[in-house]
Amino acid sequence: MDKLQQGMPRQVVDRMMQEDRFSRWLGVEVLEVSEGYSRIRMTIREEMLNGFGIVHGGVPFSLADSAFAFACNNRNNISVALDANMSFIKPMHPGDTVIAEAREVHNGRSTGVYLITLTNQREEQVGLFKGTCFRTGKPLIGAPASL
Fold first, then answer.
1. pTM for the full model?
2. Could you please report the per-residue DSSP string of 29-78?
C-alpha cells in the first residue's frame, strides 16, 4: 500500500474535523484512525448535564456518532447514517473522560455496520452504540463532496 493510501483514513478524518463544528464544540480529540476504525476522546463539561446532574443523553450519543462517522467515512467514500441506536450503561459526570471506539462489523458496497463502545477513565463501559451507514460512492477528498 502506498503512502497516500496508508494516510487516507487520517486525511479524511482531519478534513471532516475541519468542518465539524459540533464535534469541535464537544471537545473531541481524534486518537487513532485506520480503515473502518476510529478512537476518539472527550471530557464531560458542566454545560453538558441534564436536570439530574448527569450527562444529557445526547452528548454520549453524539460522541459515539462522531466515532461512527469517522470510521465509516475514512476510506474516502462519503457515508451517511441510515440507523443508529444506543444503550446508556452507566451515568457520566462532569470531569469524566470518555473514549468512543468504533469498530467495523460489516463493510459492504452500499452499507456498513459499526459497533461503538464508550468507556470512561476507569475503563468502565458506559455506553454501547450501533450504527448502520449508507455509502454514497462519492469521495470527500479528490472531488467535489456535495451530497
1. 0.92
2. EEEEEETTEEEEEEE--GGGB-TTSSB-THHHHHHHHHHHHHHHHTTT--
